[in-house]
Amino acid sequence: MFGSASLEPTLPVFLRKQVWGRREREGECSLWVREMANKVLSEMGLPKSITNIFTARNLLTAKDVLSLTEFELMELLDVGFAEVTTAVAQVSEISSPPYQTALSLLEQCIQNEYLSGHLPTRLKGLDEVLCGGIPFGVLTELVGPAGIGKTQFCMKLSLLASLPTKFGGLEGRVIYVDVESKFSSRRMIEIGVSSFPDIFHMEGMAQEMAGRILVLQPSSLAEFTESLQQIKVSLLQHQVKLLVIDSMTAVVSGDTSLSVVFRSLAEFSRIPVVVTNQVRSQCSDEISQYAFQVQSRDDTIEESARFDSHLVPALGIHWSHAVTIRLVLEAKSGERFMKVAKSPISPPLVFPFNITSSGISLLTDVGVEMIGPQINAIQNQGHSDVINFLSERLP
Ligand SMILES: Nc1ncnc2c1ncn2[C@@H]1O[C@H](COP(=O)(O)OP(=O)(O)OP(=O)(O)O)[C@@H](O)[C@H]1O
């Protein structure tokens, strides 16, 4: 009576009902779920006879039909089981969004990568696992305790984005939002001179590159929000190839809506957007309580390990979802490590690194795969030793 409809490309009916039911209960009905649910039966091209039966029983939308079990429908419509299941299958299929195959997703992905690309970090192991470096069009987050090297990494990335293409850079402008006034042009030039001596010793090159990096230092959230408009215009009008926000924690604090703003900024401009995020103790809402600040020199290792195991990114779950790549920088037994904690294309890997006059460098290009809670944990053991050890050697 109702004709046959293939259920292959759609979710099984009972699962769809469960998903709808759960999402509605939790109040998180997404737009497409609502659109699907509200599809009107009379506009679905179903056989007139069926539409009439449904209409006579006041079943007007896909949701009205799919919210009832087959047995309830049989009772209500006074028709047989086979006819009901066929009708339900048909309504399900018509009201479902079109499906995509893994192949079509892969093709889209390749196309996007072709259109966008990557900013190579020149950290060989990291570039390999990220398929070329920091991806364009998405948010990349650097998270870690104070003094671990987030700003050092951002300054190196800024140099690489402004480096002429003939030397492997992007030859673009950089917008560096320096929220905590930590950006140091002197340090950036030092990194440039040590990393690319041939290039930086060319007449006027250091000035040219430094001139491409626009540093914004907003002093309040209001000023930052105002400068967002200016940033959007600059992204369009100038050859901006990198946007850095250091640190996002200081700007956003409780305002999670900005995660959406920055994600769409990255998508729309198709440039890499790098944000830094600090850590806080899980037991406290305070962001400022870092392990090395609260430990005295004669604290035991056990105490330090216990405290450090509770460090989490200061910006919560909304940020976790908004960022595509998360790199965790941490200290363990006085050594620094960089973890690829979140990536759609790489397994969770960890690399030891250090900071020298030429900025961040990996001690090995072969990352070690992590398992279990290690992936998301943020350690800060012996970090003060790392800082003190280095600062003794610095001029
Ligand atoms: N010239 C240099 N040579 C070697 N190491 C350096 C040099 N300059 C800075 N460092 C290292 O970089 C560290 C500071 O890193 P950075 O400022 O990137 O920290 P951060 O993670 O951004 O911290 P915060 O969260 O406080 O902003 C110092 O502790 C020092 O170890």
UniProtKB/TrEMBL annotation:
It is found in: Nucleus. InterPro entries: AAA+_ATPase, DNA_recomb/repair_RecA-like, HHH_XRCC3_RAD51B, P-loop_NTPase, Rad51_C, RAD51B, RecA_ATP-bd. GO terms for cellular component: Rad51B-Rad51C-Rad51D-XRCC2 complex; replication fork. Residues 115-279 form the RecA family profile domain. Coiled coil: none annotated. Keywords: ATP-binding, DNA damage, DNA recombination, DNA repair, DNA-binding, Nucleotide-binding, Nucleus. Transmembrane segments: none annotated. Belongs to the RecA family. RAD51 subfamily. This is RecA family profile 1 domain-containing protein. It comes from Camellia sinensis var. sinensis.
